[in-house]
Design goal:
With about 375 residues, the chain is an alpha/beta fold. It has two domains: about 150 residues, Glycogen Phosphorylase B (Rossmann fold), CATH 3.40.50.2000; about 180 residues, Rossmann fold (3-Layer(aba) Sandwich), CATH 3.40.50. Helices cover about 30% and strands about 15% of the residues. It has 13 helices and 14 strands. A six-stranded parallel sheet has the order 3-2-1-4-5-6, with helices on one face. Strands 11-10-9-12-13-14 form a six-stranded parallel sheet, with helices on both faces. A two-stranded antiparallel sheet has the order 7-8. The N and C termini lie far apart (about 50 Å).
């Protein structure tokens, strides 16, 4: 179809939400823009159940549908049947999966908008081309990738700032967590997130996280607060044991995607790998140091001024691998001294010693099919 849609032409809108926590936060400018543009429409989010904690409090949707826990064809067909009864006018697919297009097609949504990927183009009415060069996907900001979909249907995305809402229940959970561990009672604190869902290759070394905790206390007077997913509890405990100072280890009770919101919002600093909670810091305006290993910074770039991204140039990277097949040199090259220097740049208001990454010009402009020639992304020099 490839034509804009007037707000009054869409009474029921289905938005398929990303599955990764970080990608959900990166989609929030688009979710807010859709709510503002289609004011009279009933907006339904199709998402994984755990994602609901992230979008809760944003007031961007009216109802929710959830992917079945079992992804067999029968359960997906039942979901499509339920969606068909809603009589949606439009489905906007922020995901690239075959399954998301199949559900929208089976649900008989008359207009289905998404990127032509994963052999699903025949099920879409509006097929946008992904950014490629010589047949390979080009690293480009996911935020702009999502915005291009919204602008395709006539919804301008003027404010590209990440944002998150917090429900009263999430406020309560966060307050109980902080009270339980005594977080922030006597001094400001730093949230330290040493894990990553993507894979072990994205994780900085536990010994260095422990040393970082020691130096946060000694040099910055900050209380280190370790957070992570339930499967990362052994990692948190290992770091807490190796640290010479008392470290708050949020293991039992642990944080949830909801209770983590107020905990990050009220922090003086966030230090993490390239993982979902990093974007919480961005959304709440918290000074953030992000440690990159095998992943390309361009995918998740947001032009957030209070973030320093540390990445060492190595001949084998960024490889995008979940597990390093050699010696994890991209991570071992990042010292605690470099991380503390980045923290000083942020907290002392010093001019950063390196340039931030460039981003596409114009918040509402559609990104080019390929990055501009000579586009650079921030890395520390050896």
């Amino acid at each position: 179809m490839d034509r804009p849609l007037a707000p009054e032409q869409c009474r029921r809108l289905l938005v398929v939400i990303p599955s990764w926590a970080g990608d959900v936060v990166l989609a929030t400018p688009v979710l807010a823009a859709l709510r503002a543009h289609f004011r009279q429409a009933r907006i339904t989010f199709l998402m994984r159940r755990y994602v609901e904690e992230i979008v809760a409090g944003g007031d961007w949707h009216d109802s929710a549908a959830h992917w079945p826990s079992q992804s067999g064809p029968k359960s997906v067909l039942r979901l499509a049947g339920r969606l068909r009864m809603e009589r949606f006018d439009l489905a906007l697919l922020l995901t690239n999966s075959f399954r998301s297009a199949l559900v929208a097609w089976w649900a008989r949504v008359p207009r289905r908008v998404g990127y032509r990927r994963d052999a699903r183009g025949w099920m879409l009415t509006d097929r946008l081309k992904p950014f490629k060069r010589d047949g390979e996907f080009v690293p480009a900001p996911v935020l702009a990738y999502y915005a291009r979909l919204a602008e395709h249907i006539g919804c301008p995305v003027m404010d590209m700032k990440l944002r998150l809402g917090i429900t009263p229940e999430q406020e309560r959970q966060g307050a109980e967590l902080m009270d339980h561990y005594g977080i922030g009672r006597e001094r400001p604190y730093a949230v330290v997130n040493p894990g990553a869902a993507y894979g072990a290759a994205k994780c900085w070394l536990p010994d260095r996280f422990a040393e970082l905790c020691d130096r946060l206390v000694a040099e910055r007077g900050l209380q280190p607060v370790l957070v992570g997913a339930p499967r990362e509890v052994p990692l948190l405990a290992d770091i807490a044991e190796k640290a010479a100072v008392d470290v708050v280890c949020c293991a039992d009770p642990g944080t949830t995607l909801g209770s983590l919101k107020p905990l990050v919002r009220d922090a003086a600093l966030l230090v993490c790998n390239d993982t979902g909670p990093r974007h919480y810091g961005n959304a709440f305006g918290v000074p953030t140091v992000t440690i990159f290993g095998p992943t390309h910074q361009a995918w998740t770039d947001t032009d957030y001024a209070d973030e320093v991204k540390l990445q060492m140039p190595v001949g084998c990277g960024p490889c995008q691998l979940r597990t390093c097949p050699i010696d994890l040199r991209c991570m071992t090259a990042i010292t605690t001294e470099l991380v503390m220097g980045a923290i000083a740049d942020l907290l002392d208001g010093r001019q950063p010693t390196t340039e931030p990454p460039s981003v596409p010009a114009g918040a509402s402009a559609l990104p080019p099919e390929q990055p501009a020639p000579g586009q650079q992304f921030f890395r520390l020099e050896m």
